[in-house]
Amino acid sequence: MSGKPVVGITMGDASGVGPEVIAKCLSDRDLYEACSPLVIGDADVMGEAISIFGIDLKVNAIKDPDEALFKFGTVDVLDLDNLDIVDFVKGKISTAAGKASVEYIEKAVQLALSGKIDAIATAPISKEAVNRAGYSYPGHTEMLASFTKCEDCAMMLVSGPLRVVHVSTHVPLLEACRRVTMPNVLRTILITNESMKRLGFRSPKIAVAGINPHAGEGGLFGKEEIQEISPAVMEARNRGIDVSGPYPADTIFLRASRGEFDVVVAMFHDQGHIAVKMLGLEEGINITIGLPVVRTSVDHGTAYDIAWKGVADPRSMKKAVKAAAEMASRKSNALT
Question: Which domains are delineated in the chain?
Answer without folding.
Answer: 1-151+290-336 (3.40.718.10), 161-278 (3.40.718.10)
